[in-house]
Amino acid sequence: MTTIPVPLAQPLPADWRDLLALTKPRVMSLVVFTGLCGLIAAPGAINPVLGFTAVLCIALGAGAAGALNQWYESDIDALMKRTANRPLPAGRMTRQTALHFGVGLSVFSVVLMQLATNTVAAAWLAVSILFYVFVYTVWLKRRTAQNIVIGGAAGAFPPLIGWAAATGDVTALPALLFTIILLWTPPHFWALSLFVRTDYAKAGVPMLPVVAGIASTRRHVLLYTLPMIAASVAPWAMGLTGWIYGGTAVTLNAIFLGLAIAVSLNTASEPAGMAPEKRLFKYSILYLFVLFASLVADRLILA
Amino acid sequence: MTPEQEIELRRRQRSRSRVTAILLGLFVVLMFAITMAKMLINQ
Predict the structure, then answer these.
(1) How far apart, in whole angstroms, are the C-alpha atoms of residue A61 and residue A106?
(2) What distance in Å separates residue B21's CA from the closest CA in chain A?
(3) Taking 70 as the threshold, does the pLDDT of residue A100 lie above it?
(4) What is the pTM for the complete model shown?
(5) What is the pLDDT of residues A55-71, one digit of tens each?
(6) One domain for residues A237 and A294
(7) Which domain holds residue A294?
């Protein structure tokens, strides 16, 4: 075998681990979980192979959107401590590789979804990727402090897609699941942005604590928690779920409200004094996991 | 390109080829399973 000499100007090809990192695997776990919950909670039974493929497509679509997000934001990622070691700002990959990978994975996930399930699910998957890339990343994120209020919709699509994959349509319950995640996103992200606000300020991202201040953001966290509570109790109040979901939702929301009140009462301005914000951020992740798990348990046990 | 870079290049090419082969194999298996599942549903 002969070795072909490589010109000096040619950059090293990206390591596959960096391509994997481009898909934001940690964010993907919540996306996959809520998508799977939407799929299982839907009436009727989907073939396990097709169900698995649908969840795989949701994961691939989310990964593709994450890759395109990192492609577009490599300049501001380089300015933030939290994101500076990502493959693009760290110089371990060319921007073109990230763009090709993101676009290719997007198309692949949508086509595979259409082949395995139905057009409705594939269309919602395409909408979710386009929304995340164009509406959130390109349009909103650098322009308005309300970026995650509207942009939160991007992360709210998975249960809707899962449901559509199983049934071929979208009804009141998946629409409510979408609304829950949409309304959950602001208090979740604002809690985080409070204790990493210097990072956002350095990168010039107009997150609420940077634009409106810490006290205003804390009030917003509490204010946005209220519609989230209403939305998450609604499936039970409307008779779409049983007591397992209802009881869990009420309990989880009571704790969430308590933590949000603690955040609104906090006066610390340095991250070291932001224990209530850190607690709320961590709890909000658990909240969504347990809420959706209770929905599945409700459907499986009480159906 | 230094010898170290050359070694790193070959290492990355090898690992990427391996991962691509595994993913292609899994894709073939998945397409077969999807086809079988669709045939089962249509019967």
Answers:
(1) 5
(2) 12
(3) yes
(4) 0.89
(5) 999 999 999 999 999 99
(6) yes
(7) 171-303
Whether A213 and A119 map to the same domain: the answer is no
Contact B16 A15 (CB under 8 A): yes
For helices A48-72 and A119-130, angle between their N-to-C axes, nearest 10 degrees: 20
DSSP state, residue A91: T
CA atoms of A206 and A152, how far apart (whole Å) = 15
Note whether ipTM > 0.85 here.
Answer: yes
Number of H helices, E strands in chain A: 14, 0
Which residue does chain B place closest to A19, by CA atoms?
A: B16
Residues A263, A214 share a domain: yes
A134 and A56 fall within a common domain:
yes
**Whether residue A251 sits in one domain with residue A204:** yes
The 10s digit of each residue's pLDDT in A66-93 is 999 999 999 998 988 888 999 999 999 9
**CA of A76: how far to CAs of A99, A167, A204, A288, in Å?**
17, 41, 8, 29
- The reply to whether A249 falls in a domain is yes
Q: Is residue A161 domain-shared with residue A177, that is, in the same domain? A: no
Q: Do B36 and A49 touch (CB under 8 A)?
A: yes
Interface contact flag, B13 A13, Cβ < 8 Å? yes
